[in-house]
Amino acid sequence: FAAGGPTDVIARIVGDHMSRTLGQQIVVENVAGAGGTTGITRASQAQPDGYTIMMGHMGTHGAAPALYPNLKYDPAKDFAPIGLAAGTPIVIVTKKNFPASDLKGFLDHMKANGDKVNMAHAGVGSVSHSTGIFFNSVIKAKPTMVAYRGTGPALNDLMANTVDFMTDQIVNVAPQIQGGNIKALAIATPQRSPVLPDVPTTKEAGLEGYEVSAWNAVFAPKATPPDVVKKLSDALVKALDDETTKKRLLDLGGVIPSATERTPEALQKLVESEVARWTPVLKAAGATAE
Ligand code: MLT
Q: Measured between alpha carbons, how far is 19 from 150 in angstroms, rounded to an integer?
């Protein structure tokens, strides 16, 4: 995705510490396009020597197969999983001058004017797109979908009041909510986030059936040797045990994976369960890329 969005921010935070452990500078290359699948396709075909790794997420390694019938990779087969980097609760956010300031008012507005409302996302199959499609199917709305190269640029337009709302990962929107530059209607998790204590959960705000969290995780090309996978995995685990790194993620509302959630095997299971989870949700919502 474009620089400045949640995936870029998480990649730089964990990459910063991993590079110290590995004694090897980690350069983040932001590759946008096709909901993140352009970058993942390219990285999946890189030399499997451990020198090209990628930050995938619930979109590229969960939703994409349902939306891209000709996807050039299988999330569950074509990678060496390294580990989960951060959980990212989804927040429903609107531009500051949206004519509703709580979820109930928003839903009333959508009933009357849904087709005139614009929803930002980061491309078909991205987290913001798939969680947006899910949201629209739950609230039975059909806003105009506006694609960006990432939710970093989408957030700029939200702050400029030139796009109406989006469902985005907390690590991207928390600072702007705290700064009063955009409005948060609800967070789609069972409990509130410690960094957004005044933002109600969707359930508290009266919306049943919309609880969703995304995640970002590190992958390597499939044929990466096991000892290299272990070296990378150990470096990621050390980053997540580092107090400064943890604080940077927590301050943005990120969720730090537990020790058992950080293993390559746990990530493999997560990918398999997320593909299985998102495929019917997106097909039921009638979403396709082509
Ligand atoms: C980003 O980094 O822009 C986001 O991860 C895009 C998305 O998946 O919504």
A: 25
CA distances from 254 to 41, 81, 172, 248, 272 (A): 26, 20, 10, 9, 22
Give phi and psi for 109, each to the nearest 5. -60, -40
Residues sharing a CB contact under 8 Å with residue 58, sequence separation 6 or more, in sequence order: 127, 130, 214, 215, 274, 278
Best of 126, 134, 158, 163 for a ligand 1 pocket test (most atoms within 8 Å of beta carbon): 126
Beta bridge partners of 56: 217
Alpha-carbon torsion, ordered 118, 64, 79, 263, to 10 deg: 70
Cβ-Cβ contacts under 8 Å for 152 (sequence gap 6 or more): 1, 2, 3, 4, 5, 6, 8, 172
The amino acid at residue 274 is E
Spatial separation of the C-alpha atoms in residues 158 and 179, rounded to whole Å? 14
How far, in Å, is the centroid of ligand 1 from the Cα of 58?
10
Which residues have C-beta atoms less than 6 Å from ligand 1?
A: 1, 5-8, 36, 57, 59, 122, 126-128, 150-152
The predicted-structure confidence for 89-98, as pLDDT tens digits, reads as follows 999 999 999 9
Query: In the structure encoding, which two tokens stand for residue 86, read together?
Result: 């951060």
Question: Does the structure show a pLDDT above 60 at 282?
Answer: yes
8 Å CB contact between 53 and 43: yes
pTM above 0.90, yes or no: yes
